[in-house]
From TrEMBL:
This is Cytokinin riboside 5'-monophosphate phosphoribohydrolase. Gene3D superfamilies: 3.40.50.450. It catalyses: 9-ribosyl-trans-zeatin 5'-phosphate + H2O = trans-zeatin + D-ribose 5-phosphate; N(6)-(dimethylallyl)adenosine 5'-phosphate + H2O = N(6)-dimethylallyladenine + D-ribose 5-phosphate. InterPro entries: LOG, LOG_fam. Belongs to the LOG family. Its EC number is 3.2.2.n1. Keywords: Cytokinin biosynthesis, Hydrolase.
């Protein structure tokens, strides 16, 4: 006996619904930073991702905010995957208690592997390396090379000067407003996850 498809079949989610990403690549500093409050919020973020069942994909380090993130997610029962170039592993910077530490040859391979493993990207406070990783993956999205959300977790206003600079780029005609509008900017974890679940990709740059 065959069953006709019911128009109100609830087994399929509406097209507009986007579940939480199952994995998030997190970019953050290999330094702790000057503010204990920032480290505490990074610790809470790692714990929150673990409790949501979201795999943390990160650079594999045990030092700085990277280490805080990994330790907090692991302590909360989460899965953490690190990706690290062999040269850094050999410097004994690798975290030794991860679920999975993937060792690659170069920094380029590291970023590509993290992008493959993640369904979304978030930058927490950090330095030039954090910015470099954030800008690359955000630019890839603008070019249509992926359709995954990219976000800034604006802990204690840490990204406000960057956001102001990006607004200047829009005003100057160097950055399309839709790409800045498509960047998820959140002050806390709940807001970040809510925005990631409702995100839709902006039109790619050359289309």
């Amino acid at each position: 006996m065959t069953h006709a498809h019911h128009p109100h079949d609830t087994t399929r989610a509406p097209a507009t619904a986007r579940p939480l990403p199952r994995s998030i690549a997190v970019y953050t500093g290999s330094a702790l930073g000057a503010s204990p409050a920032v480290a505490e919020q990074v610790r809470a973020f790692g714990s929150a991702l673990a409790k949501e069942g979201i795999t943390v994909v990160y650079g594999g380090g045990r030092v700085g905010l990277m280490g805080v993130l990994a330790d907090s997610a692991l302590a909360a029962g989460g899965k953490v995957v690190g990706v690290m170039p062999r040269s850094l592993v050999n410097s004994e910077l690798a975290h030794t208690e991860l679920d999975d530490l993937q060792v690659v040859s170069t920094m380029h391979e590291r970023k590509a592997r993290m992008a493959e493993l993640a369904e979304a990207f978030v930058a927490l406070p950090g330095g030039s390396g954090t910015l470099e990783e954030f800008f690359e993956v955000w630019t890839w999205g603008q070019l249509g090379l992926h359709t995954k959300p990219v976000s800034l977790l604006d802990i204690d206003g840490s990204w406000q000067s960057l956001v102001a600079m990006l607004q200047d780029m829009v005003n100057g005609g160097f950055l399309a407003r839709r790409h800045l509008d498509g960047l998820v900017i959140a002050k806390d974890t709940d807001s970040l996850l809510q925005q990631l679940s409702s995100w839709t990709p902006p039109q790619a740059k050359w289309t």
